[in-house]
Automatic annotation (TrEMBL):
This is NADH:ubiquinone reductase (non-electrogenic). The keyword Transmembrane applies. The gene is NDE1_1. PANTHER family: EXTERNAL NADH-UBIQUINONE OXIDOREDUCTASE 1, MITOCHONDRIAL-RELATED, NADH DEHYDROGENASE. InterPro entries: FAD/NAD-bd_sf, FAD/NAD-binding_dom, NDH-2, NDH2-like_C. Residues 422-485 form the External alternative NADH-ubiquinone oxidoreductase-like C-terminal domain. The keyword Mitochondrion does not apply. One of its GO terms (molecular function) is NADH dehydrogenase (quinone) (non-electrogenic) activity. It catalyses: a ubiquinone + NADH + H(+) = a ubiquinol + NAD(+); a quinone + NADH + H(+) = a quinol + NAD(+). Pfam families: NDH2_C, Pyr_redox_2. The chain crosses the membrane at residues 10-27.
Length: 489
């Protein structure tokens, strides 16, 4: 009996300590401590971007040692792996966005943020040109036109980390910019959701021809990489779980087609998983057109080159373009500064210490850096962590000798960056996912419903904050209980 009483006391005591600690963490989270102000004797470290690479640097950096300035057109971090889920309302948009100011405010020393786009670099003067993005969208300069002079800001740096990611690649295909939707940023997911509901509502009018109705209900995905596959899977679920109930007359007429130029989808995955994806898509009545290249996109139709070389025109209601990424315009400007070394148009060439080749005091990481690794969130975040640790480690040496060459210090500090793959996961629809995971020098492949639960728990665990994880988990529960929201917004 006394033993049982002791055990009970231990359990209740532990629960009380756990609850108090969680409460204290939540209190601290909402009531951050005072921060040290900027110190003019410290060096200024500028981080470009608030994506996987730069945000991970900020998260792991000891800001006591630097005056840190973050520059990005968006004031939040976006958890891209769950972006396809936002296009159909499986997850609400804000659940996968984390305001960067929450992170900044918890750093030891004050961090500055400028909501701006970096457009140019003067490496000799160590100065960046920024264009403000703080005006309402309709008042901002058009991306292709010159910025208004009053929106231009100059910013000096001592050290610079470039983590600007990539931008969508249209390969110059006519009509894509004007008529297609992309799936890269939160604005894209919002646009897809709106267009999807527009097409479906337009197809409900009784005065349109049957041919026009079929066009409106034809949803097309271009690109059979992981983005295109995950989006097609989410779209299928929306159709199957929700539209069948609320649009009974239309749902069975909706068609989903995925167009891929190569002989199969998901070229980076194991052959077994590719076959599994093809068979799951067959079951889900998603048509895959392989060896078929989209050559032109018009307002209501697109032109493809078929495997036999002939061309056909296919009508569509919604077309999502997911054919990968290319370098951001600012990367071209940075490359110009080191033109004799930076000869690859796909990004910034970096060495194994992530140092931009030909430059001094500039690092690049993530999708904008040509480091020999695939453009993946995992790569960008591992690079961010590695770089922050190196900077933390050499900062004390900089205290002693502020003119020391930081590139040399980082090189002497530790071994170069090496990526350690955690494997690939992708959602393919109807509660099935595929996984290609490294295991003791071998790769394990798996596909199915158990993998889907693994996919869910892995992403829940990787979300940026407890706040994001709570929101995503509650979205999944909400969807299970009430279905997805079909209002147009
Ligand atoms: P990003 O995360 O793209 O961040 C770039 C940042 O730079 C942004 O904040 C942007 O606003 C900012 N920026 C852009 N231009 C400028 C400028 N001129 N000046 C200042 N700032 C600028 N990878 C995986 O490993 N697993 C997945 O499951 C996965 N799923 C994905 C799903 C989708 C839909 C997409 C689109 C990508 C997915 N990826 C995934 C790839 C992953 O998102 C990228 O590899 C990752 O985002 C790269 O990180 P980054 O920091 O280099 O760039
Ligand atoms: P991608 O580059 O992986 O795939 C694009 C596909 O589009 C290619 O297969 C290409 O052949 C095809 N394509 C190009 N032009 C075409 C045309 N005109 N007509 C038809 N097909 C055409 O691009 P994606 O999927 O956007 O991925 C970008 C990066 O993000 C990759 O590194 C990917 O691994 C990563 N990512 C990873 C995810 C995951 O691990 N779950 C999810 C999403 C993205």
């Amino acid at each position: 009996m006394p033993r049982l009483r002791k055990l009970k006391r231990f359990v209740y005591g532990s629960a009380l300590v756990g609850l108090t600690y969680t409460g204290w963490l939540m209190y601290r989270n909402r009531n951050p401590a005072e921060q040290l102000p900027f110190d003019p004797t410290k060096k200024t470290l500028v981080l470009l971007g608030t994506g996987w690479g730069s945000t991970t640097v900020l998260k792991n950096l000891n800001t006591e040692n630097f005056n840190v300035v973050v520059v990005s057109p968006r004031n939040y971090f976006l958890f891209t792996p769950l972006l396809p889920s936002c296009t159909v309302g499986t997850i609400e948009n804000r659940s996968i966005m984390e305001p960067v100011r929450l992170l900044m405010r918890h750093k030891h020393r004050e961090v500055q943020f400028y909501e701006a786009e970096c457009t140019d670099l003067d490496a000799d003067a160590k100065e960046l040109t920024l264009v403000r993005c703080t005006k309402p969208e309709e008042q901002q300069s058009h991306p292709n036109s010159a910025a208004n002079p009053e929106d231009i800001v100059k910013l000096k740096y001592d050290y610079l980390v470039v983590g600007v990611g990539g931008t969508v690649n249209t390969f110059g295909t006519p009509g894509v910019e004007e008529h297609a939707c992309f799936l890269k940023e939160m604005g894209d997911a919002r646009k897809i959701r709106r267009r999807l509901m527009d097409s479906i509502e337009s197809a409900s009018f009784s005065d349109i021809s049957e041919e026009e109705r079929d066009r409106l209900l034809h949803m097309v995905v271009v690109g059979g990489g992981p983005t295109g596959i995950e989006y097609a899977g989410e779209l299928h679920d929306f159709l199957n779980d929700d539209l069948t109930h609320w649009y009974p007359g239309l749902a069975n007429r909706v068609r989903i087609t995925l167009v891929e130029a190569l002989p199969n989808v998901l070229p980076a995955f194991d052959k077994k998983l590719i076959d599994y994806t093809h068979s799951t898509f067959d079951e889900n009545r998603i048509t895959i057109l392989t060896r078929t290249m989209v050559k032109q996109v018009n307002e209501k139709s697109f032109i493809v080159q078929n495997p036999d070389g002939s061309r056909s025109e296919i009508p569509y209601g919604l077309l999502v373009w997911a054919t990968g990424i290319k370098a951001q315009p600012v990367i071209g400007r940075i490359r110009q500064q080191f033109a004799n070394v930076q000869t690859n148009g796909r990004g910034l060439l970096v060495d194994e210490y992530l140092r931009v080749k030909g430059a001094k005091d500039i690092w690049a990481l993530g999708d904008c850096a040509l480091s020999g690794y695939a453009p993946l969130a995992q790569v960008a975040s591992q690079q961010g962590k590695w770089l922050a640790r190196r900077l933390n480690s050499v900062s004390s040496m900089l205290e002693e000798d502020s003119d020391a060459d930081i590139f040399d210090l980082v090189e002497k500090d530790r071994r170069p960056f090496k990526y350690s793959s955690q494997g690939s996961l992708a959602y393919i629809g109807s509660e099935k996912a595929i996984a290609d995971l490294p295991f003791f020098n071998r790769n394990i492949t798996a596909g199915g419903i158990a993998t889907f639960w693994f996919w869910k728990s892995a992403y829940l665990n990787e979300l940026f904050s407890l706040r994001n994880a709570t929101l995503v988990a509650s979205d999944w529960i909400k969807r299970f209980l009430f279905g997805r929201d079909i209002s147009r917004e």
